[in-house]
Amino acid sequence: MKTDLKLEVYNHSDKNINQFLDKISKINLDRSHYLLLFVGKYKSGKKSMLNKLQKKVGGFAEIDLQNVISPNEEESYAKIDKVFSSIPSSTKNILFKNGEALTGQYTGYTYSTVRYATPQEKYLISKMKGSEKFYVMELKETEGIDKTLERFAQSAIEFEGPASFVGKIFWKLTQIKFNGHTFPSKRPSSSTI
Fold it and tell me: pTM higher than 0.85 for the full model?
């Protein structure tokens, strides 16, 4: 486990991960929020961790940020407002899928070499502040974490591929794509993860 600022970073296979999940289940969300980042390409590891987390804190409402964030800032703000106004007050746990939509992949800043928060990311964070909800944001790459997101999130769990030889082979086989390829962001990471 590494620590920078207040961001606690764990690997999904850490021995202490169950203790961390127990700690999260006891968090008091009165007048506050909690943001946990799921970072990495290991989808089945994320799914398994989300299932463990749901057993501790309850179910999650899923929001796909690809459907919310667009290159047009005003349109994104309107969609973010609509999403937050449609969340029932009884819903306390929210899963943001495709968090990389905030990093510029869909906002026109894809080829920037400087890591910074997009206006859409800053607006989403302002809506999350003081919302008394527990958020999980999924990201495929650690490069998707800029300094603003790193400061705002309380913890992150890294999802690397399986450690065993057989697990690595099966995981690599599932990564094969026949209809094209998506290249990871070439922007340098400013994250300490």
Answer: no
